[in-house]
Structure formats: structure tokens, C-alpha cells
């Protein structure tokens, strides 16, 4: 069995776990839509939201009024929490990829094979990207099923939903490559997940601060999640600011290059 297949097999169990968790979250949110969309409930929610201070509303992605009776607007609001989970998974996936071989002792076996470090990184990146792509496709299909269940007749949603998921995938790729960069630096696997979580939540909090404090508005550029917030993507009809796309692609490119060069020069624990 080649290295790519081995990697896919090793990650499959954790993939299933994350799919079950995220599908459960999506199911919970979508199951609440019928009650949230009723006229009486929508009015109650709107009244409650108006009573919340603006700064607090911004921290929950409610800077503008959300029509919870509209399926796309409702999903766009709840999708910010799906985005958080997806980005955490992507960061953990990348951060554990390279360092686990050293900690588990399997790097000695790999190093004994006629395979270069460059190929090791390449196969690791290809296999984890495959897992991440499958993960997103399944969540997208589950969401489509729920939309078909709850949408009004002749309700157009597919393209807008696709744009939101594409945006979320972009943010995941940023954290995935940053996770790989961490994996090429960290000395042991026990630090991988905590460091990946720390990286995500620090950048996420910077995004919140940029939303509620005008003087810190520039910090939004330090928070990849802010680039692709589903409610903003929906409001912009699928468009993401070009500056955000450029920054994201730059981070992905630089982090990938760093991973290859750093891992090639790293003293491996054999």
C-alpha cells in the first residue's frame, strides 16, 4: 500500500468523527429553522436583538438585522459557527501531519524508504487536502438536503450557498497551511493540537476586536475568518474583497513554501 493510501486510511476515523460532530451541529441549527421563521418568533427575536448593545451584537455577527424567516440569511448567521469548527479541524489536520511521525516513531520507517523529505511533505499535503475536501463536500451536501427540506417553492439558494462554502474552504486552507508550518517546527506531537487551537482562537478574537473597536478595525486583516464570514459573503452576493483573497493566497503560498524548506532542514528524531 503506497504512502498516500496509508495516510488516507490513518485519517479516516478522525474524519468520520468530525463529520458526525459537524453534521450534528448543522442538523441542530436547521431543525430550529421552522420555529425561528414563524412571524411571531421572528418579531420576538428582532425585539430582543434591538435590546442588545451594538458592540455585543457585532461580536456575534449581528451588526445588521438578520431576517431569520429567510432560509439563506438564517443559515448565513448559523454558518459562522460551522466555519469555526471547520477551521479548527483544518488547523489540527495540518498541525499533526508531519510531527506525528517523529513522536510515534514511524519516521524511522519512512526515512528507511527511498523517499525524499520533499515527497513526504507533498504526500502529506495531498492526503490531508483530500480529507479536508471530502469533509467539506459532505457538509455541503448535507446542507443542500436541509435546504431542500425547508425552502419555499421556487426558492433560489444553490449559488449563494456554494459561494458561502467556497469562502469557508478558503479560510480552512489558510489554517491548514499554517498548521503544516507549525508541524514543521514543533518538537513533539502533544503540542500540535493546543498550538493549532491557540493560533485559531487568537486570530478569531482579533477579528472580534476589529468589529467592536473602531481603532482596531485594521486587525480584521489578521483574522482569516473575518475574510469569509458567511453573512458578509451572502450580503455581497458571493463576492469576497480582493484584498482578503490576495492576503489568503499569500499566506497559503508562504506557509507552504516555509513547510517544505523548514522540514527539509529539520533535525528529525529518528
From TrEMBL:
Cellular component GO terms, alphabetical: plasma membrane
Protein keywords: Membrane, Transmembrane, Transmembrane helix
Domain of life: Bacteria
Pfam families: ABC2_membrane_2 (PF12679)
Gene Ontology molecular function: any one: ABC-type transporter activity
Chain ranges passing through the membrane: 12-33, 74-95, 126-147, 167-186, 193-213, 242-261
PANTHER family in alphabetical order: INTEGRAL MEMBRANE PROTEIN-RELATED (PTHR37305), MEMBRANE PROTEIN (PTHR37305:SF1)
Protein name per its UniProtKB record: ABC-2 type transport system permease protein
